[in-house]
Amino acid sequence: MRWLLLLVFLSIAGSCREFRTTPAPMAQPPVFYLKGQLHLHSSRSGDSRTPPSEVVRWYREHGFDFIVFTDHNRTGPSIQSSAPLVLSGVELTQNLRDCTPAPAPGEQCLLHVNALFVKQGATDLDPWRPEVGGDRLAAYRRALAATERGGGIAQLNHPNFHHAADAALLTTLAREHALRFFEVANGSIDAGNEGDATHPSTEELWDRVLTAGGWLYGTATDDAHHYFDAAEVAARGEPVFTGGRGFVMVHSLLDSGAIRAALMRGDFYASSGVLLDRAEVAKGFLSIDVAAASPGPHAFKFIGTGGKVLARAEGRASRFDLAAAPPGYLRAVVEDRQGRKAWIQPIHVPPSAGR
Fold first, then answer.
1. Which among 165, 176, 230, 301 is least surrounded, fewest beta carbons within 10 Å?
2. What are the tens digits of pLDDT across the range 39-82?
3. What is the pLDDT of residues 11-42, one digit of tens each?
4. Residues of 145-164 as b/e, b for ≥16 C-beta within 10 angstroms?
5. Looking at the predicted structure, is the pLDDT value of residue 9 above 70?
6. What is the Cα–Cα distance from 341 to 220, expressed in whole angstroms?
């Protein structure tokens, strides 16, 4: 019996030694949706009076996890902050004296590209020196090339503002793989997102590009210039361009490299106020769940090649069978009763997926 007890003891002790010398698997941090801003201005832009530190405070108080400073033709600033995480960018603002194709009467050649996640002090970007005129496509190509040299990724801003970029131009840049993002929803009051009698909406532009074989992800942004001073600006009778009207929700860890990678693979949605718990492709379905923070009901719209609406639904969750989608792409929009939206990024639908 003593020998038996001794053998049991040695067996347990050996197991304990093995347990102590085998490292435990490292726990992986959870991945959540991060609320981010990809277009904002501070006093470094000249058309805003709010210093960068106050911009950071405004976005902190409004629940943002990360922001990218995109002041006109100036990179930075260098601010250490983790709430929100502050990332460097610049708006490459080309306000040309003339351009071709020429603008309509009363409009100007205002061609703006945000260079996001750029290196501090990038030679080609800080300061950016816009040219005085020229071809629209060439001007955009110049900004996209400078963005790449600065280590950033490019977002074409407000294509319907003075109708800077049409579907053909966007398609060309997307096919060249120099442009991956454009603002489907810019929060400025004069962005022209909805289009007019002679110009398509930004969503229609998006569908035309995707149908023509270009690939773009759509962002929603503030393009804010006024923050804690918004009431004062309004009291003077001036236009107010404040924040909180457009943002992205990125499925990522709170790390600049992880955020950038998630954006590049389209693992995010754009929003003007609707929040989601889930927007993912799994088991052959695109599934979308609205978050409890967004009171319903909500309208779901699934859109495919040619801008065709493939299905509609109402409620707090919906899903679409990819096998029912024609070849090309599938994207979705969720809208609440107040007209606020969430735009789910397009996914490729191969010829074998559709029936």
1. 176
2. 999 999 989 999 999 999 999 999 999 999 999 999 988 888 88
3. 434 443 333 344 555 555 666 899 999 999 99
4. ebbeebebbbbbbbbbbbbb
5. no
6. 10
In the chain, how many H helices and how many E strands? 7, 18
User: How would you class 258 by CB atoms within 10 Å of its CB: exposed for 0-12, middle for 13-18, buried for 19 or more?
Assistant: middle
Dist. CA 14–CA 256, nearest whole Å: 45
Hey, which residues does 248 pair with through a beta bridge?
A: 36, 270
163 Cβ contact list (under 8 Å, min separation 6):
103, 104, 107, 192, 199
Burial class (CB in 10 A: 0-12, 13-18, 19+), 204: middle
The alpha carbon of residue 203 and the mean position of all alpha carbons in its chain are separated, in whole angstroms, by: 15
HEC string of 88-134 equals EEEEEEEEECEEECCCCCCCCEEEEEEEECCCCCCCCCCCCCCCCEE
Residue type present at position 327: P
pLDDT given for residue 27 in this prediction:
59
Report CA dihedral (184, 178, 173, 94) to the nearest 10 degrees. Answer: 70
Instruction: Find the Cα–Cα–Cα–Cα dihedral 43, 45, 46, 49, rounded to 10°.
Output: -20
Cβ neighbors of 61 (< 8 A, separation 6 or more) are: none
Q: Read off the tokens for 58.
A: 């405004």
Angle at 193 between CA 87 and CA 348, to 5 degrees: 70
Answer whether 0.85 is exceeded by the pTM. Answer: yes
Expressed in angstroms, the distance from the first to the final Cα of the chain is 73
Give the model confidence (pLDDT) of 142-196 as tens digits. 999 999 999 999 999 999 999 999 999 999 999 998 899 999 999 999 999 999 9
CA dist., res. 7 & res. 318, Å (int) = 60
Q: Which ranges in the chain belong to alpha helices (H)?
A: 2-21, 52-61, 136-149, 167-175, 202-211, 230-235, 256-264
User: Contact, 140 vs 165, CB < 8 A?
Assistant: yes
Contact 168, 175 (CB under 8 A): no
C-alpha distances in Å from residue 286, one per residue of 102, 268, 279, 301, 349: 42, 14, 7, 12, 11
Weakest mean pLDDT among 137-141, 220-224, 292-296: 292-296
